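We treat protein structure as text, and this decision shapes the records that our systems exchange. This encoding replaces a full spatial description with a residue-level series of whole-number codes. Below, we set out a record of this kind in full and without editing:
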Amino acid sequence: MQGLKQHIFHYNRPQDSKVRLISAGICILIINLVGFLSGNYSINAVASLGVFTFLHYTPTEDDRIIKRLMFVGLILFISYVLGLLSTVYILMGPLIIGLIAFVSRLLFRLFKLDKPGDLFIILCVAAGASNPVQSEEVAQLSLYFFPVSPCLS
């Protein structure tokens, strides 16, 4: 029992820069405040995924970082929009999430992308699928991926 308590309450020190961790925390705080003050809580889930994706990249990846960020950002955007579209028909949700999970796993293994991983893509499509919307609202809600979206709401 004592070993279980030590295992549960063990603190692993982060190997990352403290400035980077504090800046990510400030970003999450700003996102949560914008969502709270505007009364729109769906922006919190999507924007927090972006901050966690930022934390998974290390600053030493110089040669492929821009290509990887563009690729992962595009895949995150596509998966979120497909998640939003899956709420139009009630039976499409599990099918779209399963298809995105399979394709993202395949692409991340094919291009040897280890960070942030296909789990973030699956979480993003699930965040989109958790917002029941009409098909007319998909274009406006897809703008949550861009920095100007708090100004539009």
